[in-house]
Amino acid sequence: SGGLFSRLRRGLQRTGSGIGQLFLGRKQIDADLLEELETLLLMADVGVEATTRIIDDLTDRLKRNQLTDIEALQHALREDMRSILEPVSQPLTIPAGDKPFVILTVGVNGAGKTTTIGKLAERFKSEGHSVVLAAGDTFRAAAVEQLQAWGERTGTPVISQPTGADAASVVYDAHQAALARGATVLIADTAGRLHTQGNLMEELRKIARVLGKQDEASPHEVLLVLDAGVGQNALAQAEQFSQAAPVSGIAMTKLDGTAKGGIVFALAQRFGVPVRFIGIGEGVDDLRPFDAEAFVDALLA
Ligand code: GDP
Protein backbone atom coordinates (compact mmCIF):
# COMPACT_ATOMS: atom_id res chain seq x y z
CA SER A 1 0.00 0.00 0.00
CA GLY A 2 1.02 3.62 -0.40
CA GLY A 3 1.00 4.00 3.37
CA LEU A 4 3.51 1.26 3.80
CA PHE A 5 5.72 2.68 1.12
CA SER A 6 5.80 6.23 2.46
CA ARG A 7 6.39 5.03 6.01
CA LEU A 8 9.23 2.78 4.99
CA ARG A 9 10.58 5.39 2.62
CA ARG A 10 10.74 7.95 5.39
CA GLY A 11 12.48 5.44 7.58
CA LEU A 12 15.06 4.46 5.03
CA GLN A 13 15.68 7.93 3.72
CA ARG A 14 18.77 8.33 5.82
CA THR A 15 20.19 5.08 4.57
CA GLY A 16 19.39 5.42 0.91
CA SER A 17 19.18 9.12 0.08
CA GLY A 18 22.87 9.31 -0.74
CA ILE A 19 22.50 6.48 -3.20
CA GLY A 20 19.48 8.04 -4.88
CA GLN A 21 21.25 11.40 -5.09
CA LEU A 22 24.30 9.84 -6.65
CA PHE A 23 22.39 9.39 -9.88
CA LEU A 24 20.64 12.76 -9.88
CA GLY A 25 21.36 14.90 -12.89
CA ARG A 26 23.74 12.37 -14.40
CA LYS A 27 23.37 11.18 -17.96
CA GLN A 28 26.48 9.09 -18.40
CA ILE A 29 28.26 6.50 -16.35
CA ASP A 30 31.66 7.99 -15.65
CA ALA A 31 34.68 6.21 -14.30
CA ASP A 32 34.32 7.05 -10.61
CA LEU A 33 30.58 6.43 -10.32
CA LEU A 34 30.89 2.82 -9.23
CA GLU A 35 33.56 3.77 -6.72
CA GLU A 36 31.26 6.39 -5.22
CA LEU A 37 28.43 3.89 -5.16
CA GLU A 38 30.66 1.39 -3.39
CA THR A 39 31.50 3.95 -0.71
CA LEU A 40 27.83 4.81 -0.19
CA LEU A 41 26.83 1.16 0.13
CA LEU A 42 29.55 0.57 2.71
CA MET A 43 28.51 3.70 4.60
CA ALA A 44 24.94 2.39 4.72
CA ASP A 45 26.28 -0.78 6.39
CA VAL A 46 25.51 -3.03 3.43
CA GLY A 47 28.77 -4.73 4.37
CA VAL A 48 31.82 -5.75 2.34
CA GLU A 49 30.46 -9.08 1.06
CA ALA A 50 27.15 -7.81 -0.27
CA THR A 51 28.73 -4.59 -1.58
CA THR A 52 31.42 -6.54 -3.44
CA ARG A 53 28.76 -8.77 -4.95
CA ILE A 54 26.83 -5.75 -6.22
CA ILE A 55 29.82 -3.78 -7.50
CA ASP A 56 31.38 -6.83 -9.18
CA ASP A 57 28.17 -7.54 -11.03
CA LEU A 58 27.75 -3.94 -12.16
CA THR A 59 31.41 -3.77 -13.26
CA ASP A 60 30.95 -6.95 -15.19
CA ARG A 61 27.83 -5.71 -16.93
CA LEU A 62 29.55 -2.42 -17.77
CA LYS A 63 32.48 -4.26 -19.34
CA ARG A 64 30.09 -6.26 -21.46
CA ASN A 65 28.40 -3.04 -22.56
CA GLN A 66 25.11 -4.11 -21.03
CA LEU A 67 24.66 -0.82 -19.21
CA THR A 68 24.37 1.95 -21.72
CA ASP A 69 23.01 4.72 -19.53
CA ILE A 70 22.30 5.75 -15.94
CA GLU A 71 18.83 4.34 -16.09
CA ALA A 72 20.13 0.91 -17.03
CA LEU A 73 22.65 1.09 -14.21
CA GLN A 74 19.96 2.02 -11.68
CA HIS A 75 17.82 -0.82 -12.93
CA ALA A 76 20.69 -3.28 -12.57
CA LEU A 77 21.50 -1.99 -9.08
CA ARG A 78 17.89 -2.47 -8.04
CA GLU A 79 17.94 -6.00 -9.42
CA ASP A 80 21.19 -6.85 -7.63
CA MET A 81 19.90 -5.50 -4.33
CA ARG A 82 16.64 -7.39 -4.68
CA SER A 83 18.41 -10.63 -5.53
CA ILE A 84 20.29 -10.45 -2.22
CA LEU A 85 17.13 -9.86 -0.20
CA GLU A 86 14.67 -12.07 -2.04
CA PRO A 87 15.93 -15.36 -0.54
CA VAL A 88 15.34 -14.01 3.00
CA SER A 89 12.03 -12.37 2.17
CA GLN A 90 9.90 -15.10 3.72
CA PRO A 91 6.92 -13.98 5.75
CA LEU A 92 6.00 -15.80 8.93
CA THR A 93 2.80 -17.71 8.34
CA ILE A 94 0.84 -19.28 11.15
CA PRO A 95 -0.49 -22.64 9.99
CA ALA A 96 -4.13 -23.42 10.64
CA GLY A 97 -4.65 -25.91 13.45
CA ASP A 98 -5.70 -26.29 17.02
CA LYS A 99 -2.22 -26.18 18.52
CA PRO A 100 -0.67 -22.89 19.54
CA PHE A 101 2.10 -21.77 17.20
CA VAL A 102 4.97 -21.02 19.56
CA ILE A 103 7.33 -18.13 18.91
CA LEU A 104 10.37 -17.75 21.14
CA THR A 105 11.96 -14.31 20.95
CA VAL A 106 15.63 -13.74 21.65
CA GLY A 107 17.83 -10.67 21.46
CA VAL A 108 19.97 -8.38 23.59
CA ASN A 109 18.31 -5.94 25.98
CA GLY A 110 17.24 -2.77 24.26
CA ALA A 111 16.97 -4.33 20.81
CA GLY A 112 13.20 -3.90 20.88
CA LYS A 113 12.13 -7.38 21.91
CA THR A 114 9.24 -6.41 24.18
CA THR A 115 7.97 -3.79 21.77
CA THR A 116 8.10 -6.28 18.90
CA ILE A 117 6.19 -8.86 20.95
CA GLY A 118 3.49 -6.26 21.64
CA LYS A 119 3.29 -5.32 17.96
CA LEU A 120 3.15 -9.00 16.98
CA ALA A 121 0.31 -9.65 19.43
CA GLU A 122 -1.67 -6.83 17.85
CA ARG A 123 -0.91 -8.03 14.32
CA PHE A 124 -1.86 -11.65 14.96
CA LYS A 125 -5.03 -10.61 16.77
CA SER A 126 -6.04 -8.43 13.86
CA GLU A 127 -5.58 -11.50 11.67
CA GLY A 128 -8.07 -13.35 13.83
CA HIS A 129 -5.69 -15.22 16.08
CA SER A 130 -6.00 -15.69 19.79
CA VAL A 131 -2.68 -14.82 21.41
CA VAL A 132 -1.03 -15.53 24.78
CA LEU A 133 2.20 -13.92 25.94
CA ALA A 134 4.78 -15.52 28.24
CA ALA A 135 6.94 -13.24 30.39
CA GLY A 136 10.00 -15.46 30.05
CA ASP A 137 12.48 -12.73 30.86
CA THR A 138 12.26 -13.45 34.56
CA PHE A 139 15.55 -11.72 35.16
CA ARG A 140 14.33 -8.15 35.16
CA ALA A 141 11.16 -6.99 36.91
CA ALA A 142 10.94 -4.16 34.39
CA ALA A 143 10.77 -6.64 31.53
CA VAL A 144 7.74 -8.36 33.04
CA GLU A 145 6.00 -5.04 33.76
CA GLN A 146 6.70 -3.79 30.26
CA LEU A 147 5.24 -6.93 28.73
CA GLN A 148 2.20 -6.62 30.96
CA ALA A 149 1.71 -3.06 29.73
CA TRP A 150 1.74 -4.32 26.15
CA GLY A 151 -0.67 -7.06 27.16
CA GLU A 152 -3.09 -4.45 28.48
CA ARG A 153 -2.66 -2.22 25.46
CA THR A 154 -3.40 -5.06 23.05
CA GLY A 155 -5.88 -6.99 25.20
CA THR A 156 -3.61 -10.03 25.38
CA PRO A 157 -3.22 -12.25 28.45
CA VAL A 158 0.32 -12.27 29.87
CA ILE A 159 1.46 -15.27 31.89
CA SER A 160 4.15 -14.37 34.41
CA GLN A 161 5.78 -15.41 37.64
CA PRO A 162 7.77 -13.36 40.14
CA THR A 163 11.24 -12.15 39.18
CA GLY A 164 13.85 -14.84 39.44
CA ALA A 165 11.43 -17.65 38.59
CA ASP A 166 12.45 -20.38 36.19
CA ALA A 167 11.86 -19.14 32.65
CA ALA A 168 11.03 -22.62 31.39
CA SER A 169 8.37 -22.92 34.06
CA VAL A 170 6.78 -19.64 32.98
CA VAL A 171 6.75 -20.76 29.35
CA TYR A 172 5.29 -24.11 30.37
CA ASP A 173 2.51 -22.35 32.30
CA ALA A 174 1.86 -20.07 29.36
CA HIS A 175 1.68 -23.03 27.01
CA GLN A 176 -0.85 -24.71 29.29
CA ALA A 177 -2.85 -21.49 29.40
CA ALA A 178 -2.71 -21.21 25.62
CA LEU A 179 -3.96 -24.79 25.26
CA ALA A 180 -6.74 -24.21 27.79
CA ARG A 181 -7.91 -21.08 25.98
CA GLY A 182 -7.58 -22.60 22.55
CA ALA A 183 -5.07 -19.87 21.65
CA THR A 184 -3.45 -20.18 18.25
CA VAL A 185 -0.30 -18.19 18.98
CA LEU A 186 2.02 -18.14 22.00
CA ILE A 187 4.81 -15.58 22.04
CA ALA A 188 7.46 -16.03 24.71
CA ASP A 189 9.91 -13.40 25.83
CA THR A 190 13.30 -14.63 27.04
CA ALA A 191 16.21 -13.00 28.81
CA GLY A 192 18.84 -12.05 26.28
CA ARG A 193 22.07 -12.37 28.15
CA LEU A 194 24.82 -12.72 25.62
CA HIS A 195 27.65 -12.30 28.06
CA THR A 196 26.47 -15.45 29.74
CA GLN A 197 25.83 -17.32 26.55
CA GLY A 198 26.14 -20.69 28.21
CA ASN A 199 23.24 -19.81 30.48
CA LEU A 200 21.18 -18.51 27.62
CA MET A 201 21.76 -21.68 25.68
CA GLU A 202 20.85 -23.80 28.68
CA GLU A 203 17.77 -21.69 29.35
CA LEU A 204 16.59 -21.95 25.75
CA ARG A 205 17.23 -25.69 25.72
CA LYS A 206 15.20 -26.07 28.85
CA ILE A 207 12.35 -24.04 27.38
CA ALA A 208 12.49 -26.14 24.21
CA ARG A 209 12.45 -29.27 26.35
CA VAL A 210 9.30 -28.38 28.28
CA LEU A 211 7.57 -27.30 25.08
CA GLY A 212 8.74 -30.34 23.16
CA LYS A 213 7.12 -32.60 25.72
CA GLN A 214 3.77 -31.26 24.55
CA ASP A 215 4.52 -30.71 20.89
CA GLU A 216 7.69 -32.09 19.38
CA ALA A 217 8.01 -29.34 16.80
CA SER A 218 7.84 -26.53 19.34
CA PRO A 219 9.09 -23.80 19.40
CA HIS A 220 8.01 -23.32 15.82
CA GLU A 221 9.92 -20.10 15.43
CA VAL A 222 12.94 -18.68 17.21
CA LEU A 223 12.76 -15.01 16.35
CA LEU A 224 15.92 -12.96 16.81
CA VAL A 225 15.23 -9.27 17.39
CA LEU A 226 17.99 -6.99 16.12
CA ASP A 227 18.32 -3.21 16.33
CA ALA A 228 19.28 -1.92 12.86
CA GLY A 229 20.94 1.07 14.52
CA VAL A 230 23.83 -1.00 15.83
CA GLY A 231 25.00 -1.60 12.26
CA GLN A 232 27.71 -4.19 11.80
CA ASN A 233 27.35 -5.22 15.43
CA ALA A 234 24.09 -6.90 14.42
CA LEU A 235 26.18 -9.46 12.55
CA ALA A 236 28.03 -10.40 15.72
CA GLN A 237 24.73 -10.70 17.59
CA ALA A 238 23.25 -12.89 14.86
CA GLU A 239 26.36 -15.06 14.99
CA GLN A 240 26.25 -15.48 18.76
CA PHE A 241 22.52 -16.09 19.05
CA SER A 242 22.63 -18.59 16.20
CA GLN A 243 25.18 -20.53 18.20
CA ALA A 244 22.94 -20.50 21.26
CA ALA A 245 19.60 -21.25 19.58
CA PRO A 246 18.17 -22.43 16.25
CA VAL A 247 17.31 -18.93 15.04
CA SER A 248 14.71 -19.29 12.28
CA GLY A 249 13.75 -15.69 11.69
CA ILE A 250 14.81 -12.10 12.27
CA ALA A 251 12.85 -9.02 13.25
CA MET A 252 14.85 -5.91 12.40
CA THR A 253 13.81 -2.95 14.53
CA LYS A 254 14.33 0.81 14.44
CA LEU A 255 14.67 1.10 10.69
CA ASP A 256 12.86 4.43 11.03
CA GLY A 257 15.72 6.16 12.75
CA THR A 258 18.96 4.93 11.29
CA ALA A 259 21.35 5.42 8.41
CA LYS A 260 22.41 1.81 8.80
CA GLY A 261 19.44 0.09 7.16
CA GLY A 262 21.83 -1.59 4.74
CA ILE A 263 22.65 -4.05 7.51
CA VAL A 264 19.70 -6.13 6.24
CA PHE A 265 21.75 -6.88 3.09
CA ALA A 266 24.80 -7.84 5.12
CA LEU A 267 22.69 -10.20 7.25
CA ALA A 268 21.01 -11.73 4.21
CA GLN A 269 24.32 -12.26 2.45
CA ARG A 270 26.07 -13.71 5.51
CA PHE A 271 23.39 -15.81 7.23
CA GLY A 272 20.46 -16.29 4.88
CA VAL A 273 18.07 -16.36 7.85
CA PRO A 274 14.57 -15.18 6.85
CA VAL A 275 13.84 -11.59 7.79
CA ARG A 276 10.26 -11.83 8.99
CA PHE A 277 9.43 -8.32 10.13
CA ILE A 278 10.77 -4.81 10.25
CA GLY A 279 10.09 -2.24 12.94
CA ILE A 280 9.58 1.31 11.73
CA GLY A 281 8.47 3.10 14.88
CA GLU A 282 7.50 2.76 18.53
CA GLY A 283 3.76 2.46 17.95
CA VAL A 284 1.73 -0.72 18.02
CA ASP A 285 1.17 -0.61 14.25
CA ASP A 286 4.78 0.11 13.35
CA LEU A 287 5.71 -3.42 12.40
CA ARG A 288 5.63 -4.65 8.81
CA PRO A 289 6.22 -7.99 7.18
CA PHE A 290 9.53 -7.77 5.38
CA ASP A 291 9.26 -7.44 1.62
CA ALA A 292 12.45 -7.35 -0.49
CA GLU A 293 10.97 -5.36 -3.33
CA ALA A 294 9.31 -2.72 -1.18
CA PHE A 295 12.47 -2.43 0.91
CA VAL A 296 14.77 -1.81 -2.05
CA ASP A 297 12.29 0.56 -3.68
CA ALA A 298 11.99 2.58 -0.48
CA LEU A 299 15.74 2.63 -0.08
CA LEU A 300 16.46 3.89 -3.57
CA ALA A 301 13.38 6.05 -4.10
P1 GDP B 1 13.94 -4.87 24.80
O1 GDP B 1 14.85 -4.51 25.93
O2 GDP B 1 14.66 -5.65 23.75
O3 GDP B 1 12.69 -5.52 25.23
O4 GDP B 1 13.60 -3.50 24.08
P2 GDP B 1 12.28 -2.61 24.15
O5 GDP B 1 11.17 -3.29 23.47
O6 GDP B 1 12.07 -2.15 25.53
O7 GDP B 1 12.71 -1.39 23.21
C1 GDP B 1 13.77 -0.51 23.56
C2 GDP B 1 13.44 0.88 23.01
O8 GDP B 1 13.41 0.84 21.59
C3 GDP B 1 12.08 1.37 23.45
O9 GDP B 1 12.18 2.74 23.73
C4 GDP B 1 11.20 1.16 22.21
O10 GDP B 1 10.13 2.06 22.13
C5 GDP B 1 12.20 1.37 21.11
N1 GDP B 1 11.84 0.67 19.86
C6 GDP B 1 11.56 -0.64 19.66
N2 GDP B 1 11.32 -0.89 18.37
C7 GDP B 1 11.43 0.30 17.70
C8 GDP B 1 11.31 0.69 16.32
O11 GDP B 1 11.05 -0.08 15.40
N3 GDP B 1 11.52 2.02 16.06
C9 GDP B 1 11.83 2.91 17.04
N4 GDP B 1 12.03 4.19 16.68
N5 GDP B 1 11.97 2.57 18.33
C10 GDP B 1 11.77 1.28 18.66
Automatic annotation (TrEMBL):
> What reaction(s) does this enzyme catalyze?
GTP + H2O = GDP + phosphate + H(+)
Q: Write down a Pfam family by its short name.
A: SRP54_N
Q: In its keyword annotation, does this UniProt entry include Hydrolase?
A: yes
Q: Which domain of life is it from?
A: Bacteria
The protein's UniProt keywords, in alphabetical order, are: Cell membrane, Cytoplasm, GTP-binding, Hydrolase, Membrane, Nucleotide-binding, Receptor
> What's the protein's topology in the membrane?
Peripheral membrane protein
Does the keyword Oxidoreductase feature in the UniProt annotation?
A: no
Binding positions for GTP? 107-114, 189-193, 253-256
> EC number(s)?
3.6.5.4
Report the residue ranges that make up the SRP54-type proteins GTP-binding domain in this protein.
Answer: 274-287
- Quote the subcellular location field of this record: Cell membrane; Cytoplasm
Q: Which InterPro entries match?
A: AAA+_ATPase (IPR003593), P-loop_NTPase (IPR027417), Signal_recog_particl_SRP54_hlx (IPR013822), SR_rcpt_FtsY (IPR004390), SRP54_GTPase_dom (IPR000897), SRP54_N_sf (IPR042101)
Recorded hits in SUPFAM superfamilies, A to Z, give: P-loop containing nucleoside triphosphate hydrolases
NCBIfam families, alphabetized = ftsY (TIGR00064)
Family recorded in the similarity comment = Belongs to the GTP-binding SRP family. FtsY subfamily.
Query: HAMAP family this protein is in?
Result: FtsY
Q: Which PANTHER family match?
A: SIGNAL RECOGNITION PARTICLE RECEPTOR SUBUNIT ALPHA
Q: What does this protein do?
A: Involved in targeting and insertion of nascent membrane proteins into the cytoplasmic membrane. Acts as a receptor for the complex formed by the signal recognition particle (SRP) and the ribosome-nascent chain (RNC). Interaction with SRP-RNC leads to the transfer of the RNC complex to the Sec translocase for insertion into the membrane, the hydrolysis of GTP by both Ffh and FtsY, and the dissociation of the SRP-FtsY complex into the individual components.
State the oligomer form and interacting partners.
Answer: Part of the signal recognition particle protein translocation system, which is composed of SRP and FtsY. SRP is a ribonucleoprotein composed of Ffh and a 4.5S RNA molecule.
Q: What is this protein called?
A: Signal recognition particle receptor FtsY
| Annotated source species | Spiribacter pallidus
Q: What gene name is listed for this protein?
A: ftsY
